[in-house]
Amino acid sequence: MMTAHTDHHILKAPDGTPLYVVVPWDDYEEHFGGRSDDEVTIPHAVIVIEDERGVSLIRAWREHLGLTQDEVARRMGVTRQAYLQMESLAAKPRVATLKKIAAAMGVTWEQLRA
């Protein structure tokens, strides 16, 4: 949900029916994850943790880096319980949240997105 007003441009067909919506890149990235042309690499050890333990990619990264939930939460400025929800298998964190987690872990947000 956007909290600030954003100007979106609607492109219409000659008969006036809407065809496309042009949105600012930041809005697109926030809501749809954007697109990166850079190759994203994830260490094999992270994939093994994710696969063998059946945990989220975020948790696999945290464990691979030797970080505790408390440490990541503290770096993010949130409670451990709030962070715990972010790394659960059921979580679908927004791009903005992935960026905060990535900054706390020292990885790129794209590496946290599966």
Overall geometry comes to elongated
CATH topology of the largest domain: 434 Repressor (Amino-terminal Domain)
- Unreliable parts: none
Q: Compute the number of structural domains.
A: 2
Report the count of strand segments.
Answer: 2
Summarize the helix and strand pattern as letters: EEHHHHHH
| CATH hierarchy: architecture of the largest domain | Orthogonal Bundle
What's the tally of helices? Answer: 6
Strand order of the largest sheet: 1-2
Strand composition percent? 5-15%
- The CATH top-level class label of the largest domain: Mainly Alpha
Mean pLDDT, nearest integer?
86
Helix content: 40-55%
Largest sheet: 2 strands, antiparallel
Report what the structure shows.
By secondary structure, this protein is mainly alpha-helical. The chain folds into two domains: 1-35, no CATH class; 44-112, 434 Repressor (Amino-terminal Domain). The chain is 46% helix and 8% strand. The protein has six helices and two strands, in the order E-E-H-H-H-H-H-H. The protein has a two-stranded antiparallel ribbon with strand order 1-2. It is elongated and about 60 Å long. The relative contact order is 0.13. The model has no long low-confidence stretch (mean pLDDT 86).
